[in-house]
Amino acid sequence: MRVRPMLALLGLLYWGAGAQAEEAIAVIAGVTPPHIAFGRRNLRDIFLKRIVIDQDGTALVPLNLAPGDPLRIAFSLAVLGKRPDGLERYWTERYFHGVSPPYVVHSEEAMLRFVTETPGAVGYVALCRVDDRVKVVARLPVPRKMARKIHEVCAH
């Protein structure tokens, strides 16, 4: 008799894990990705342009979505610990040292295409948008406060 409630609970836990997995942020690169470890610290340094080449000397090309895009906000919170507008001072300072911020593309499809066609490119999309044109090099959890927005992205 007690087995059924336990199975129901396990089913809910499994379903919840699947929902969270679909709402993950996929860090993507081309089919032949750069030779670098894609841990959170390296991702932060790649997107802050502190690491600019991989182990083979290939230039890294980080890409962002537009600053107001919910996925960009989720990525920035997950990797950089700040919203995109919280980095303005950082990029202003870096600009005076000759370093400009990552390129901005205006859709996840544009992100997929750019990454596919550009050696060294590293970007991100909602995990539900990944296809065989790219390789997922890291998966990031969506910050709790952004989960609903990312769920809406994947639902469309």
Describe the structure.
This protein has 156 residues and is of the alpha/beta class. Helices cover 42% and strands 15% of the residues. It has a single domain (3-155), classed as Periplasmic binding protein-like II (D-Maltodextrin-Binding Protein, domain 2, 3-Layer(aba) Sandwich). The chain has helices at residues 3-22, 40-47, 70-80, 88-95, 108-117, 147-155, and strands at 25-29, 61-64, 103-104, 121-126, 135-140. It has a 5-stranded mixed sheet, with helices on both faces. The longest helix is centred in the N-terminal third of the chain and has 20 residues, at 3-22. The relative contact order is 0.24.
The structural domain count equals 1
Cα-to-Cα separation, first versus last residue: 41 Å
Q: Could you give a short account of the major beta sheet?
A: 5 strands, mixed
CATH class: Alpha Beta
Number of helical segments with 4 or more residues: 6
- What is the structural class? alpha/beta
What's the rounded overall pLDDT mean? 86
> What is the helix content?
40-55%
Order of helices and strands: HEHEHHEHEEH
Portion in strands = 5-15%
CATH architecture: 3-Layer(aba) Sandwich
Q: By CATH's scheme, which homologous superfamily applies? A: Periplasmic binding protein-like II
Overall body shape: globular
List the helices and strands and how they pair.
Layout: H1 3-22, E1 25-29, H2 40-47, E2 61-64, H3 70-80, H4 88-95, E3 103-104, H5 108-117, E4 121-126, E5 135-140, H6 147-155
Parallel strand pairs: 2-3, 2-4
Antiparallel strand pairs: 1-4, 1-5
